[in-house]
Write a structure and sequence with these properties.
This protein has 8 helices and 9 strands. The strands form 3 sheets. Strands 2, 3, 4, 5 and 6 form a 5-stranded mixed beta sheet that branches. The longest helix has 32 residues.
Amino acid sequence: MKSVRLKFLLMRQASGVNNSKLLQVNSEEDKLQSYVNEKGVENLHAMVAIKDFEIRAFVVNIENKVFHVPEPHPVVLYYARAYGLSDSIDKLRSDTIYECNRQPGNVYNQLQSFSNFYVSFTSFVTHLYNSVESFMNYTIPKDYVDSVEIKVKGVKKFPDREDVQRWVKFKDKFDRILPSIHERKFESYTKETKLIYELKELRDSIMHTKFDVGSSATPYSPLFRAALSFEFVAALEAVEIFINYFEPGLIEYVES
């Protein structure tokens, strides 16, 4: 059985260079506590030494206990969660189909089966979409300025990295900005692109669940039908291809 290899956001060869903003905390807990008491943790991170490597960690203060947590790569983290849900979703959908086709039927069993499927499915869609969105945002260079003007809080400007992340539409980031940054286009992957756009639409429908006044008697049926018919395995593969196309090897698997 395979699982996705989780990764640190930053893991590098140990530099041996001191930096006032970085703390080697693996054996200096007292220094860390005194620093936090003086300045707080908001802008503090730590470099944890592991053999010949340094791993970046964030520092947190909970109930006056200060500790550091290795910073995971969010793109891989979101994708790994979606991948981990895929097998159970397949079974839960099969259970729903079975319950709704058996004779005589039991509406309570049917409701429970579909509810189990849908709750897991919404988590899958959300995490898989987050892996796409976070990947696009993560790849924007620090000094990036887009060539197309947009309005930001009523003012026209060429958006910088923060503006692109907050205000630029998904389609613009996917179709134009990401290819311009990497100097390569994903347009030849038509099937994968179509699936990612369908994933985005389904995620939006889930996040902004609306009462469909145009539906005859089942106002949520468009959303629920879309969930049952969505090609989730193909979408999972499409996202993996998309991410590894722009950053080869970011999504990897290990035998578990």
